[in-house]
Each structure stands twice: as structure tokens, then as C-alpha cells.
Design goal:
By secondary structure, the protein is of the alpha+beta class. The protein folds into two domains: 72 residues; 134 residues, 2-Layer Sandwich (Heat Shock Protein 90). Helix content is 66%, strand content 13%. It contains eight helices and five strands. The chain has a five-stranded mixed β-sheet, with helices on one face. β2 and β3 form a beta hairpin. α2 packs antiparallel against α3.
Length: 287
């Protein structure tokens, strides 16, 4: 290429220096100018073609981003609908349990106390007492079922309060110490709050069943336009391969990961035999 062999330098010298040109020099100069013009034209067309390709690529990227935004919006709406449907069903069952079985069992207990007062034989009184205790235990179990279905504190007092209440109810009898550190700036929306609560509960269940822990700590923190939650225990720990192969006893952790991913977040486990376990997950907030 002429430009590559000296570029415009020979032409510039001819134009700047008042040097007489022979006919052959003129022909060479004309030829070089024509070649240079042709190369400039080729460069212009190549640059235009590349610019067109870049514009098409940018348009495709924008279309892809738009599809991703729409898919993310659809996922959020689907998650919200699923969470609402699940929680509404839980509320309906809880209402049915409260309005019928608990009230019936309470009435039975009151009648047993009345009948026991009318019975004189010690053996019959003892039997009535045992029946009354059984009824009270059944009522307590039904009330715990109500709590399991949907704690009122989750709506009235927020996520941290609901987690503290659950830990108090489930860990106090097991003599497991617990703490909840709440660093959230604002309370998450209902759907996100519910997802985090359900995942944390499953992590608590794994601690109670397998960890043999003496202490559990919970952290809630606003991070990267979402909520980061961490459940850490000082228990026996386990090999992460048990989770990766879905061995019995750790299937609940796989469900935690699925629930977090469905919400657009992630779920991670860090554990080793004898070193305790840390379950950490992040759920994005609607933006």
C-alpha cells in the first residue's frame, strides 16, 4: 500500500517545496493521490460498516436488556402472586383452626371441669383430670400450629420480631441461646419479608434437628439494594458434599436455595465437621 510505504510525506514535500515536476513526477503524484483517495474511501466504508455493526449490536444488547427487565419484572410479579397465594391459604387454614377446632376443644375442656366437679369417685375424677390435661395439650398444639402457619408478629412488628419470637418458641425448650441483630434501615415489603422469614425458619429447623448447637446468631442487614440474612450456629457442622448430593437430613437447605433463587437472590452454606454452620442468603428489594 502506498500510504504504508511513506504515507503523505512524499506528496507533502512536493507541495511544500517549489520543485519543478517532470511529466513522470506528475503521473506518479497523480497515481499516489488516486491510490490514497481509494484507500480513504475503503477506510470510510469499513468504518461505516463497523459503525453499522456496532449500532446493530447495541440495539440487540438493548433488546436483550429489555427482555431481561421484562423477565425480571414477570418473575417478581409471579413470586408476589405465589407468596400471596401461599400466605392467604395459610391464613385461611389458621382461621379455620382457630374458629372451629380450638373453640370446640376449649368448650370440651370446660365441660370436663364441670363434669369432674359432679363426679365423686376418685378413679373417675382421676380419669377426668387426665382427659382435661390431654385437651389442654391438644389446644396448645393447635395454637402452635397457628403460630407455624403465620405468626401475627410478622405483620404487626416486622421481620426481626417474628424471627425472635420463633426462636423463643422453638429454641427455649432446647436450651439453645440465640440473638437477632437487626441492621435493616427499613422493613422489607410483605412478599420479601415472608420469603426471608420462611428461608430463615428452614435454616432454624436444620439447626434444631442436626446441629447440636448451643448458640445461634441471626443477622439482618440492608445490602446491595436487597436484604442480607445470615444464620450461624456453633454446632457440629457437616461436609458440604452432603448438601451437594442431597443426602437425607439436608434436603431443606436445597429448598432454601430454590426459594431464594426464585426470589432473584442467592443462598450459600459454609460448614465443615466440627466447625459449625453459616447459612447466608440475599433477596433483592423491588426497584
Amino acid at each position: 500500500m502506498v500510504i504504508g510505504e511513506g504515507g503523505l510525506e512524499p506528496i507533502r514535500k512536493v507541495l511544500e517545496e517549489d520543485v519543478p515536476l517532470t511529466e513522470e513526477d506528475r503521473r506518479d503524484l497523480t497515481h499516489q493521490l488516486l491510490v490514497y483517495a481509494e484507500e480513504l474511501s475503503d477506510l470510510y466504508h469499513a468504518a461505516t460498516e463497523r459503525a453499522d455493526k456496532m449500532e446493530a449490536a447495541n440495539a440487540e444488547v438493548n433488546r436483550t436488556l429489555d427482555l431481561l427487565r421484562k423477565a425480571d419484572d414477570h418473575r417478581r410479579k409471579l413470586l408476589a402472586a405465589l407468596v400471596r397465594a401461599e400466605e392467604e391459604e395459610r391464613k385461611r387454614i389458621a382461621s379455620d383452626v382457630h374458629d372451629d377446632p380450638i373453640q370446640v376443644m376449649t368448650a370440651v375442656g370446660m365441660r370436663l371441669h364441670t363434669v369432674r366437679a359432679l363426679v365423686s369417685e376418685p378413679e373417675a375424677q382421676e380419669m377426668m383430670e387426665r382427659l382435661a390435661v390431654t385437651v389442654e395439650e391438644a389446644i396448645e398444639r393447635l395454637r402452635f400450629l397457628l403460630f407455624e402457619l403465620r405468626p401475627r408478629s410478622l405483620d404487626r412488628e416486622g421481620l426481626a420480631a417474628a424471627l425472635r419470637e420463633y426462636l423463643e418458641v422453638t429454641f427455649s425448650q432446647a436450651s439453645i441461646e440465640y440473638e437477632v441483630e437487626n441492621e435493616l434501615g427499613v422493613e422489607p415489603p410483605e412478599e420479601i419479608r415472608t420469603v426471608i422469614y420462611r428461608i430463615a425458619r428452614e435454616a432454624f429447623a436444620n439447626v434444631r434437628r442436626h446441629a447440636k448447637a448451643k448458640k445461634v446468631s441471626v443477622l439482618l442487614r440492608s445490602e446491595n439494594s436487597g436484604v442480607l440474612a445470615r444464620v450461624r450456629d456453633d454446632g457440629v457442622g457437616f461436609s458440604l458434599s452432603e448438601v451437594e448430593t442431597n443426602r437425607p437430613g439436608h434436603l431443606g437447605l436445597s429448598a432454601c436455595a430454590e426459594r431464594a433463587e426464585m426470589a432473584g437472590g442467592w443462598f450459600r452454606i459454609d460448614s465443615a465437621p466440627g466447625s459449625g454452620t453459616s447459612a447466608e442468603f440475599w433477596i433483592p428489594l423491588p426497584g
